[in-house]
Amino acid sequence: KQWYQRRVRGVRHIVENHDPDTPLFLYLPMQSVHSDYFAPKKYYDCTDSPRCTMQAMLKAAEELLTDVIQYFKDAGMWNNTLLVYHSDNGAPSSTYTSNGPLRGSKSHLWEGGVRTVSFLYSENHKLMPNRGYTDCLVHVSDWYSTLIAISGGWTAYSANTGLEMPDGLDSVDQSSALLFNQTDTCPRTQIMLHIDPVKRVAAYIKHRYKLLIGPQDSKADCEDDTFYPLNISSINFSIIELFDIFTDPNESHNIAHSKADIVTDLQRDLVDFLSHQRPLQCQLPTLDNSYPDDDVPYYLPWDYSRDSLPASAYNYNTL
Length: 319
Fold this sequence. Notes:
By secondary structure, this protein is of the alpha+beta class. The protein is 26% helix and 11% strand. The longest helix has 25 residues, at 50-74. The model is unreliable at 299-310 and 312-319 (pLDDT under 50).
């Protein structure tokens, strides 16, 4: 209840005090379908299974979204707003949730852990000329370039913010596929999902094929103050799987042996990507030997070994 009220008050304050003639970007992360699994009694339609709790949590999220939309309507901004609704990852493995029929769950590189659904909505036909769907590859980083394109492009963005498009930006403008249904050629053709030197696994998608390297069910976790370099030896290449996720999204048929040429091509991309990566440091070091430095030019967002960060941890470096 307190979580819901805090977000409602925060959103309402932002919207009511915003000039409708000035663009607004509002990001609202909802905690209501995340652990801990709990919802006020008024949201329950049943109580005979853990799924009833998840249903009640989703109902609470829908009420929050309904309130947010009403705030925009009351402020006269809803007719010029594009709503983007999406998840960050698949659900964890529990009696409350399910990613079926997809394989795996949160923290896995199987489709059940990384493939999510999303939708866009606007009552303004100029913002969203067509209604439909796309099967094109979309990465979360693509929202950056896509939203900038929808809101006027990089020229307008730079004029309003003073920021230029970064060199080597790995964010693809998906507006043609998402808003105009122009999907004869998908804007993005590959996604480097993850390279994890702790579990020694990696996953990479190129066109319709997905390469999985290493023991995907590994439960290895970061060891305190351990330095994990990212190179060829970081990944367990003795375990290789390949799936056609267009025809086999459940990843039930490993075709690595019959598509050896595809495996070689995707492996080559993966190795090249590895050669450009920074190492992983599982925890912040002590203040006396503090990062960032040339090897690890950033701070972790928090330190698991203490309750609070040292003051110097707020001096962020940008990669």
